[in-house]
């Protein structure tokens, strides 16, 4: 059995999909979400998308969702340990 690994993908302080980074983020997450069940079953990877609460559920049930908070610019506290954390937004 493959050990479970959590992978976080942060879309940052996303306000809408109507710009270059928003559209890129949406397309990337849709593509990953379509493969999420297979990646979980074959490799043990669990995908989590970090984005504002209003966008949770956008990519289906096969991925997890993490809410953004303004305090996260200084402090990140999560109960889940991530093997990989990728941020699409550059602060």
Give a quick precis of the structure.
Helix content is 26%, strand content 21%. The chain has one helix at residues 20-43; strands at 5-10, 45-50, 64-66, 84-87. The radius of gyration is 13 Å and the shape is globular.
Key features?
91 residues, alpha/beta, 4-stranded parallel sheet, 1 helix, 4 strands
Secondary structure: elements and pairs:
Layout: E1 5-10, H1 20-43, E2 45-50, E3 64-66, E4 84-87
Provide structural commentary.
With 91 residues, this protein is α/β, with parallel strands linked by helices. The protein is built from 1 helix and 4 strands. A 4-stranded parallel β-sheet has the order 3-2-1-4, covered by helices on one side. The longest helix is centred in the middle third of the chain and has 24 residues, at 20-43. The relative contact order is 0.30. The mean pLDDT is 87.
Mean pLDDT: 87
Our Rg estimate from Cα atoms comes to 13 Å
Shape, per Cα inertia axes: globular
What structural class do helix, strand and pairing data support? alpha/beta
Largest sheet: 4 strands, parallel
How many strands in all? 4
CA-to-CA gap between the ends? Answer: 38 Å
Strand proportion? 15-25%
- What letter string, H or E per element, gives the SSE order? EHEEE
Widest sheet: strand ordering: 3-2-1-4
- Can you count the helices? 1
The helical percent reads 25-40%
* Model regions low in confidence, pLDDT < 50 over at least 5 residues: none
